[in-house]
């Protein structure tokens, strides 16, 4: 590490010394709003014919006079005059109000003038996405697009939950559709249902994370139904359009090489703060008050270990809690280390002290390497780009790794004056090993570390025991007095054995590609044909070793997914009228989509015959009956779009699409959805110096959605055979042959304005979106033989406002500051469910709470037991048993105790440029929203957390009985003596004040045993320092004749700090995986702070 630091210091010092010299005037011209380099910009010395043009990287070099003024100009941008003050001069050009040729990518990959678009669309450049890299490129969009809420699971290669303008489907998919170069791609997650509800499993990530961020040119986010209607049923949740980099016309070949190395460390502010005063146990349950002459107060097990006829004090290793005897270095006790003959500590006593290395030391430093090379070229007849990227990462959990290789090709050829053909292809190989176990599961070390743990355990000694023996030498064996079972784990494995022996592996091979031909029929009519495919196969294997707490076994899952699309579009673009004041753009097209999925899952039964051999044939009993999935579906669509413009200030669009889906019954399988938009560029009608641009937009749209595959006819489930007898069962949810398509109706209005020559601008949208006739499982009579049946019912509404602010507050000489703020407030409401239903459970999770949809409430409320409260809302407390003293909370009925949806969320991105230096800072923030923590629910009852020890405000140990002056102080509560009730039988006559809750054993007032679930619902608000980057572009004049055309060195940081949050022990963003079940933490992993260095070379 010291050598790396010295090397870095040398690099920085070298660049600083270089910047002190001057030669010809050189620099980079970039877009003021995106920061991306601008090619073909004219750079001219004012009053002379001396001129130059920027290259494809936005770089220029010009010889200029001593007091020269350089004029920078480019079509669509405001010209800028800058005095030469040194050898390096970087300039950012602002968009001109007359930028008629600015285009954005819209539905079906169609490029349009941005000012003509009547709906909200926001773009993020590839340079911004790659500024601070992440294994999942979707995470790099967080905070950069209004209306898009992105939350990460916190695991290596884990999934990102991408929700655009709120949850719209009660039980279906709420994730945005991803489209790459016109190819709709799968973004499925293949995590088990158990994993998604916190019961255990691995997060295998989103399929869309396969996309290589180095290949991304820009990302366009289509938010509303009007923007996405042409994509059909799947686009109701918004569309993420990804345009990849293409080859450019140039002399010779262009070569770019990028390399990056990132290291990460655990953020301790997002993890348990352990108490270090009390050892293992749940209370005074284990032995006599005195053992071997030491007053152990019934906290220790008495057992004659050394055979001298006298009982010895032994740690109760069976216990996974820390409400034991106070630590005392003078007390010598037998621990788990004394039990195992393989260890040098076998049969020896050790001091009764807290572990020197708590579980935070279990986590390692992460490391990520990313290397990429790209070659491109082109001429008047065509261009190409070829790239290869290797990504590898080592996670914070020992033994975890993820590798991905991306290969891409794009090319186009002008076959004739009328015919152009093009193709793109991406091949991705991904392999993971040792992904993090999640949820309430023994494969997740945090289940123990956060919830059930003995703080006397030293992680370094657990590691040493595993490294020495390779065996499951755990801190949690049955222990002394249990005979042959003494060394067998009771609840938890050695954490190193668990992650290194009970590991998983996964592989995915994927091909994404298309072929397209565009034929120009005449000057105003074109025909495009495109065929695309997204296909991948994946293998997941999970292992449980012999010697584990769980039954040894092996699980294998194979899955093949394919989607093909064939598109044909006839496009017309024409102007008409006496002075060509009218413009007409029309498209008529068809789409044929086919999807197929095949999957099989199999597992051993009853254990493994031969330890360490992971194969289905090594099963002790007949392997369990495999679970098989196989379906095909198809959608045929016809669509039309017409846009009419008048004098470049008024645009009216109308679209319509008719789909026929195989997942709906033949009588109802065809559905139509229209949209209409209006855009009024009012800045063309007024002449106000301060207003550079102004546009009002409004739209209306309807979007349909079909049913999931195989929702029409019932089929039996086959189970594991009983002897030679096959077993079958009816599914718990019966299908419905009379389903109708779902419907979504959306209205939106927006205002875009730019001021002061585009130095300040905003884009605001308000929307109202209702989804109804939803396809969902409704509860039916048990007499039907099933529990649920698919029906059309339910309605959900989203209303919201989005605001994007852009400004260049300072633009003076060599210094420039650009700022962008994205802010979103979405209000979600479940209007109705199926007839007679009061709630729809999205998940029933460990801890006695459910995540639900309830009429009149937001989608995703948390439901559980509440505190009884007085008229002013204060929690009611009452007396503990007299021998303890103190109070506990009075627990009331089940009710809504939280909401997974934030009140609002925002991102604030700032970039600063000074000469060849650029710096950027991104703050990502959320206000409101809740999550239920199973970690504190159990952990507060097991004495692990710091607040459960120490001294109270009276100066007495919190662990002392409240009757003796101990206890944990709870403020401003309503005390009830238990004797008075009102006319309805409810508690009354309270005494408001501060009281002390007993904290001497697991049945304390704050943990799961004596408290309401409400107590463990936390505020999910946060402000994060999401990204930091510092980049230096070496002037081309310094590179001389090296052949290097560009060299950039950047220092980056990601998730460096949580500047503010309300929950003390975790990352508020931490969750399980992508999907509808959010707002729940169980065994949450700590956040990782990453710093890195990136180098980019161009030849």
Give an overview in words.
- The protein is built from 9 helices and 62 strands.
- The chain has 1099 residues and is mainly β.
- It folds into 4 domains: 73 residues, Immunoglobulin-like (Sandwich), CATH 2.60.40; 690 residues, Beta Barrel (Maltoporin, Chain A); 113 residues, no CATH class; 104 residues, no CATH class.
- The strands form 15 sheets. The chain has a 22-stranded antiparallel barrel.
- The radius of gyration is 32 Å and the shape is globular.
Write the layout of secondary structure elements.
Layout: H1 2-18, E1 25-31, E2 42-45, E3 51-53, E4 59-62, E5 69-73, E6 80-83, E7 91-93, E8 103-105, E9 111-113, E10 121-125, H2 126-129, E11 148-152, E12 160-164, E13 177-180, E14 183-185, H3 193-196, E15 201-202, E16 216-222, H4 225-228, E17 239-244, E18 254-266, E19 290-291, E20 294-295, E21 301-303, E22 312-314, E23 328-333, E24 350-352, E25 366-379, E26 382-394, E27 401-414, E28 419-433, E29 437-438, H5 445-451, H6 459-469, H7 495-501, E30 504-522, E31 525-544, E32 553-576, E33 582-603, E34 627-646, E35 650-661, E36 670-680, E37 691-705, E38 717-722, E39 725-729, E40 733-734, E41 742-755, E42 760-772, E43 775-779, E44 788-792, E45 795-812, E46 815-832, E47 840-845, E48 849-853, E49 861-867, E50 876-879, E51 887-889, E52 891-899, E53 904-914, E54 917-927, E55 930-933, H8 934-939, E56 968-975, E57 991-997, E58 1017-1019, E59 1022-1034, H9 1036-1039, E60 1046-1061, E61 1080-1081, E62 1088-1098
Parallel strand pairs: 1-7, 13-17, 40-44, 50-56, 55-61
Antiparallel strand pairs: 1-4, 2-3, 2-5, 5-6, 8-9, 10-16, 11-12, 13-14, 15-29, 16-17, 18-25, 18-62, 19-20, 21-22, 23-24, 25-26, 26-27, 27-28, 28-30, 30-31, 31-32, 32-33, 33-34, 34-35, 35-36, 36-37, 37-41, 38-39, 41-42, 42-45, 43-44, 45-46, 46-53, 47-48, 48-49, 49-52, 50-51, 53-54, 54-59, 55-58, ...
